[in-house]
Design a protein that fits this description.
Elements lengths: L5 H10 L24 E4 L4 E5 L5 E5 L8 E4 L5 E5 L9 E7 L6 E5 L4 E7 L10 H8 L11 E8 L2 E4 L6 E5 L6 E2 L5 H5 L3 E7 L20 E5 L10 E2 L4 E2 L5 E4 L6 E2 L32 E2 H5 L9 H5 L7 E3 L5 E10 L11 E6 L7 H4 E5 L8 E6 L9 E6 L7 H5 L4 E3 L4 E5 L8 E6 L12 E2 L13 E4 L7 E5 L10 E7 L7 E7 L5 E3 L8 E9 L5 E5 L10 H4 L12
Length: 581
């Protein structure tokens, strides 16, 4: 090491002269000269400064113009002196002072401060909290290793407190963990990194002076940015709810029928007091915009079919390419696959995917032959609707029913929220008038026989619920003799003008009754027993047609057997003859 006294250094600095206008350097007194700028090159990749020595045999360098001791690098056989600059603090701009043993006037060379790099992981660019989303999308169109399934890395540089997006990702290099080797950005595969979770480091590559137009404008490596990638989350649990025909797909999840096109269930603002919803990544305008958290979605909605579509193999055959499906050993289509995952967000990647099999429905209902709908018989008035499942034996079928306002326009979501009740084979069930309201409809569907089957599509009972039908019939009589009067009793006397009374009789109480007379109105509600009725049982059939066109008919219990009036058949006792005076 050559020692240079302070006084001599000051003298050398004083001898330094500026460039003339023609770009050549002037010589100082005593023919002292400076190292030419073109002789100084920086290799930023290897963190070395290379000086072409010229006539010099030694190059002296320091980051302090007033240093007492200067470092030295000898000029080698190739005419160059090379020295390390990795010790120079990279976070600030530094001036390196140089001179030779021949070119003794000090030359200054600036090393600009490195760029400050930061990196953020985002699961989905569209959910990122940045203003240049479209620009980032354009960048990543050229990098197939990055998608909404893997997530993205967004880069920013900072100078003077201002942060700027850094889009030139070709200049980024990365390494796995602190001890890894630096690699080009296009070799980064986030899907592999998510498998176990990892810490990644990123930096902007250095540019050597030799690779710039003026051979003097190279740049250092940027500062290193660290990103911790979490292990990708497990696939969400999704249950098939046969009762509601729904899937347990919740807020923040997304589903697909082909593993390519994903539909997001929006995440609702937890703290919001208004009917607002955060903007979803994928348009999803089926759900109402309320703060209610979504816990399930209707299967018809997920499959993209009408609420009352029959879910069987015809759905697959009529929509080629739309669904992925399961086939059994007999090559029969037995169900459709739905793919569900937790959606990516601004801070995490999408989870693993759950493959959910949606089974097909049971056979279609036959309400006309299987179900009887009647109104409850009661003296005090109609108290509800009586439903009877007529199936039994080998044809026994369990039905479900629900009460709805408009069965012809049910949405898939409304279908999944209906309250269904069970009506077992050969059973009768009462639905109270507080639940079965006038103007509503009753819909029926076949219940699934197992968890590997869905309920059938539904069929509506064709008439609205209207409590204007005859529901009760009875007879009363002061006398069951010829000449006596039997009165029909019904709970619907308010509409008596529309009621038909059909009087019938039979020799036995369990035989076939034949009609005696029939008529409408108050007069027809009474029957006077005739002599020809003696020895018969009498009953009345009370019927009417509702305002919706539905016919109703109720049969009373039988009367007792009609007998002759014993008073009318008794022989009068003659009066005694008057005595003769």
């Amino acid at each position: 090491m050559r020692k240079l006294c302070k006084g001599m250094l000051v003298l050398l600095c004083a001898l330094a002269v500026p460039l003339f206008a023609n770009g050549t350097r002037a010589e100082a007194a005593g023919n002292a000269t400076m190292l030419p700028d073109k002789s100084i090159r920086v290799d930023y990749e290897n963190e070395e400064m290379i000086v072409t020595g010229g006539k010099n045999t030694v190059i002296y360098y320091s980051d302090n113009a007033t240093a007492s001791f200067w470092e030295e690098a000898k000029v080698g056989a190739d005419g160059k002196a090379v020295f390390d600059i990795s010790w120079i603090k990279p976070s600030v701009t530094t001036r390196i002072y140089l001179r030779g043993d021949v070119d003794t006037i000090v030359t200054a060379r600036y090393l600009e401060a490195q760029e400050k790099l930061s990196a953020d992981f985002v699961g989905d660019i569209s959910a990122a909290d940045v203003v240049d989303i479209d620009l980032w999308k354009d960048v990543y169109k050229n990098y197939p290793n990055f998608s909404a399934e893997t997530g993205y890395i967004l880069f920013f540089t900072k100078q003077g407190g201002a942060e700027t997006a850094f889009f030139d990702v070709d200049r980024i290099e990365w390494k796995k963990e602190a001890t890894g080797n630096w690699r080009p950005f296009d070799e980064l595969n986030l899907a592999q990194m998510h498998a176990k979770g990892v810490t990644l480091f990123f930096r902007i590559k250095a540019v050597n002076d030799e690779d710039t137009a003026d051979k003097m404008s190279g740049v250092r490596y940027s500062s290193e940015a660290k990103v911790i990638l979490q292990k990708i989350a497990t696939a969400p649990t999704v249950n098939v709810n046969n009762a509601s025909m729904s899937l347990g797909i919740r807020n923040g999840m997304e589903y697909s029928l082909n593993k390519r096109d994903w539909n997001l269930v929006p995440t609702y603002a937890k703290s919001s007091t208004e009917d607002t919803v955060s903007v979803p990544v994928v348009s999803f305008d089926v759900l109402p915009t309320t703060n209610r958290r979504v816990t399930s979605l209707s299967i018809p909605l997920v499959l993209g079919v009408d609420a009352n579509a029959m879910l069987d193999e015809s759905l697959v055959k009529n929509n080629p390419g739309k669904y992925l499906y399961e086939v059994n050993e007999a090559n029969e289509i037995t169900g459709i696959y739905v793919y569900v995952r937790t959606a990516a967000s601004g801070r995490k990647a999408a989870s693993k995917v759950n493959e959910v099999l949606v089974p097909f429905s049971s056979s279609e209902p036959d309400v006309a032959s299987d179900i009887t709908v009647e109104y409850q018989n009661t003296k005090s008035g109609t108290g509800g609707v009586m439903l009877t499942n007529n199936t039994r034996g080998e044809n026994a079928t369990v039905y479900q029913f629900a009460i709805v306002d408009d069965p012809d326009n049910l949405t898939a979501e409304e279908l999944s929220e209906l309250r269904w009740s069970t009506l077992k084979s050969a059973k009768t069930l009462k639905v109270s008038s507080s639940r079965a309201l006038p103007g509503q409809y009753i819909i029926f569907r076949k219940s699934p026989e197992s968890k590997s089957e869905l309920p059938s599509s539904y069929e509506k009972y064709p008439y609205q619920i209207q409590y204007d039908k005859v529901t009760y019939a009875a007879i009363s009589s002061t006398s069951l003799y010829n000449g006596g009067v039997i009165t029909a009793v019904t709970s619907n006397n308010a509409i008596a003008g529309d009621i038909t009374y059909t009087w019938q009789r039979c020799r036995t109480s369990t035989g076939t009754f034949e009609t005696i007379t029939s008529g409408k109105g108050y007069a027809a509600s009474k029957y006077t027993i005739k002599d020809s009725d003696v020895g018969y049982y009498i009953r009345v059939v009370i019927s009417n047609t509702s305002i919706t066109g539905e016919k109703a008919s109720v049969i009373s219990k039988n009367s007792g057997k009609i007998a002759k009036d014993p008073m009318a058949s008794a022989t009068p006792t003659p009066s005694p003859a008057p005595s003769t005076p």
